[in-house]
Amino acid sequence: MSKAEWLDKAEAYCARSEHCAADVRRKLFEWGAPSEIADFIEQKLRENDFLNDARFCHAYVHDKVEYQSWGRIKIQAGLHALQLPESDIRSALEEIDEAKYRDNLRALIASRRADSEDKRLRFLLQRGFTYEEIKKNAK
Asked: Which domain holds residue 17?
């Protein structure tokens, strides 16, 4: 395939949903793209606004809070694992809807009422909530 064909395929991939550079590189290698093409593709995707770190961070944070009820710590760790800029991560985390976040935590606490306190605490910590958040909302 030519560079243009690889670029078209990557653009189509990015047009379907929000992705970060690490996702695109992984996908290119899965498709069998030569490694020397990855930098070119990433640069072109950024130029054409198919890749945008800030936009990806905001979408990631929104989806993890809205659909998976993750806490800030787990979300932040996930974004760091994708090697995204700290400033974009911080900005996205600041825009979490506090009411939704608190409701998610309370719903998780309520769903685990039958568990022992230790087991419930471990579960919530693994979901990325801080000990202070858990204790504050456990009432």
From this structure: 3-51
